[in-house]
Amino acid sequence: MRILYIDIDSLRPDHLGCYGYHRNTSPNIDSIAERGTHFTNYYTSDAPCAPSRNALFKSQFGIHTGVINHGGLEADNRAIGENRPFNHHHTAYQSWVDVLRFQGLHTAMISPFPGRHANWSVLEGFLEMHDTGKHAGETAGDVTAEALRWIKGRGAEKEDWFLYLNFWDPHTPYRTPVSYGNPFKEDPAPEWLTDEMINRHRESFGPMSARELPAEQLWPDLPKEITSRLDFEKWIDGYDTAIRYADDHVGIILDALKEEGILEDIFIIISADHGENQGELNVYGDHQTADHITNRIPLIIAGPNVSQGHIDEDFHYQIDLGPTLTELAGGEQREKWDGTSFLPALTEKKSSGRPYLVVSQAAWSCQRSVRFDKWILIRTYHDGLKDFPELMLFDLESDPHETENVIEQHPEIVGKGLQLLDAWVAEQMASSDSPTDPMWNVIQEGGPYHTRGNLENYLISLRQDGRHEAAMRLESRHEKLQHIYKARRGTK
């Protein structure tokens, strides 16, 4: 058995052809979908980067591992405590990659991720680790060169293996080589975002909002602000070109596998750590929320006995993938895993999903959201300096870009969502090794890592920019949090 897992950072599924996108961003990825199964309601349990991949490799929710932030107390895995075994082999805490290793697969990773986020625990079970060395500043060419070296000669070997391969191109700053050009210059950008919406965004606020794009840009002709549809089109060109560039390199890897004579024998997985808001909730080119756009990710799987051309619409977490691969390799589920196998969905087209999902974010904002039926209910505990109310409800069938908060129109749906959220938190805490919900620790520390300590300077910036009403709203909202921060610091 040979498994290739290609993780493309910040890749939202609705910008891929196989998920219905109108631009030709992904011909090679689409070819994998044609001969396999792809999943339309596959979500990361914990966004963004480090919480997502930590949860993936441990098959545990962030509420259990403690890894929900990008810095501070809750960016490291919590100690197991007095029940910690000598090692994790064949115990409840064993990682699924380690299980694959014990099932006879040679396990390897090509990625700068562990070093970039100082998250070395994700390496448990890997026999090889190749750091591509640029701390996520890599282009696909850097990663592909290392991958081709690893693949060369594998066709002559009988060894089973699992290779995790990590591309970063769709993550800002967009870094596609200038020589590649803009393949989408003549293609229209998505039509959902109007000039009227952009004007509303500009009167609002938040990191990576319409007025506050990052200063560092590597790709030419990107706007410094979103002032109109024209700016939006240029911005989306940068993102979509990065996807197409990564897809080209997926094609190079597929060609190498074909040359080795092993392409048809390999299980190929395409996925991501999180999606990418591109105007949704007034976030452009970032992953700051626990919403449909940031937490929904692609999952495409092709390989021996995988149903061809099948589309699975059930709810799944990314933490379910490890147990699925474990079952595929003949291994057994571990007691501490929160994920569950959906192998029957792959090989028999059988429904293997969950009734609902709870997804989280705590690095840019503190949110938990419930995805059920056609709805997503977003509860904000700390806004991360963004213009978010405490509760937002979106009908994803009619409003997949989350433009209209319909909380007032559907109180019964809000009530159901809150009940599901409360029940989920209670269930997870009952099975936790720790008595503390990590979300509250993040809030007590001062909020999500990327905006912590920035309130006063940001209020000054808003007022200098003429957004006095926005500054007043934000300041008022944060007054109730001050006593929490002071209690943590031991001040009055």
UniProtKB/TrEMBL annotation:
<feature type="domain" description="Sulfatase N-terminal">
    <location>
        <begin position="3"/>
        <end position="330"/>
    </location>
</feature>
<dbReference type="GO" id="GO:0016740">
    <property type="term" value="F:transferase activity"/>
</dbReference>
<keyword id="KW-0808">Transferase</keyword>
<dbReference type="GO" id="GO:0016787">
    <property type="term" value="F:hydrolase activity"/>
</dbReference>
<protein>
    <submittedName>
        <fullName>Sulfatase-like hydrolase/transferase</fullName>
    </submittedName>
</protein>
<keyword id="KW-0378">Hydrolase</keyword>
<dbReference type="InterPro" id="IPR000917">
    <property type="entry name" value="Sulfatase_N"/>
</dbReference>
<dbReference type="Pfam" id="PF00884">
    <property type="entry name" value="Sulfatase"/>
</dbReference>
<dbReference type="InterPro" id="IPR052701">
    <property type="entry name" value="GAG_Ulvan_Degrading_Sulfatases"/>
</dbReference>
<dbReference type="InterPro" id="IPR017850">
    <property type="entry name" value="Alkaline_phosphatase_core_sf"/>
</dbReference>
